[in-house]
């Protein structure tokens, strides 16, 4: 199956330009769109709550999704990478016209898969780095490093502490804060705050 995916974020935009680009692309590459998926919704909206989410549940191996550019899938880097990873796991291809991406069983796809995995590692490294720098700065300024009134709550006081073991396992597996929030069905900021608090605790124990 070949799917043409079109998304606009407001009624001031038109789907016709995207449809024209996809149809023109298909003509040049001897392809026919079997089904069109069109929606008017912000790309920041969780893809599971969009028509795109329904499409991703339907896709099978060797199916092809064509869109004009990666930003049509989402406006968040981690969301886009999660969508591409899901497609790769199902053996579905994703082609974009303006970006020229060809997600499939080739070297470029392997690079994208690597980028997805390393992005989670980069996120953890940045969180750790920011935490270390903040602790070092506070220590240099002679400030107390423990909890004070009005400071960030202790780890056990955070709402997500009931998922502590799961979160630690997910972190050890290399999952990003965004991916963990999807698995736990909770807010990204909550997970990020929990990981930062956990990282601080681990550094203070060293």
Structure description:
With 206 residues, this protein is α/β, with parallel strands linked by helices. It folds into two domains: 2-105, Resolvase, N-terminal catalytic domain (Rossmann fold, 3-Layer(aba) Sandwich), CATH 3.40.50; 121-205, no CATH class. Helices cover 50% and strands 11% of the residues. The chain contains seven helices and five strands. The chain has helices at 16-28, 51-58, 77-90, 107-140, 164-172, 177-184, 188-205, and strands at residues 2-8, 35-40, 64-67, 93-96, 102-103. It has a five-stranded mixed beta sheet with strand order 2-1-3-4-5, sandwiched between helices. Helix 3 (77-90) runs antiparallel to helix 4 (107-140), helix 4 (107-140) packs across helix 7 (188-205) and helix 6 packs across helix 7 (188-205). The longest helix has 34 residues, at 107-140. Mean pLDDT is 80; it is low at 147-152.
State the gist of this model.
The chain is of the alpha/beta class. The protein contains seven helices and five strands, in the order βαβαβαββαααα.
The CATH C-level name of the largest domain is Alpha Beta
Give the beta-strand count. 5
How would the global form be characterised? Answer: elongated
Distance between the termini: 54 Å
- Give the SSE string: EHEHEHEEHHHH
Mean pLDDT across residues:
80
- Total domains, how many? 2
Q: What are the segments in which pLDDT stays under 50 over at least 5 consecutive residues?
A: 147-152
- Please estimate the helix content: 40-55%
* Discrete helix count: 7
Q: Largest sheet, order of strands side by side? A: 2-1-3-4-5
CATH topology of the largest domain: Rossmann fold
Structural class: alpha/beta
What portion of the residues fall into strands of 2 or more residues? 5-15%
């Amino acid at each position: 199956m070949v799917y043409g995916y079109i998304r606009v974020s407001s009624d001031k935009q038109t789907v016709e330009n995207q449809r024209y680009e996809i149809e023109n692309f298909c003509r040049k590459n001897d392809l026919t769109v079997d089904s069109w998926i069109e929606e008017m919704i912000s790309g920041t909206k969780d893809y599971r709550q969009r028509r795109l989410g329904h499409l991703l549940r339907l896709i099978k191996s060797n199916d092809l999704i064509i869109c004009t550019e990666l930003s049509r899938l989402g406006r968040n880097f981690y969301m886009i990478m999660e969508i591409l990873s899901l497609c790769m796991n199902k053996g579905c291809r994703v082609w974009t016209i303006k970006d020229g991406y060809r997600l499939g069983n080739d070297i470029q796809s392997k690079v994208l898969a690597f980028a997805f995995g390393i992005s989670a590692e980069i996120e953890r490294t940045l969180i750790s780095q920011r935490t270390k720098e903040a602790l070092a700065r506070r220590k240099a300024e002679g400030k107390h490093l423990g909890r004070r009134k009005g400071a960030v709550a202790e780890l056990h006081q955070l709402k997500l502490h009931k998922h502590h073991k799961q979160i630690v396992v997910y972190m050890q597996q290399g999952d990003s804060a965004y991916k963990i929030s999807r698995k736990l069905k909770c807010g990204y900021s909550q997970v990020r705050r929990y990981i930062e608090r956990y990282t601080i605790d681990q550094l203070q124990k060293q």
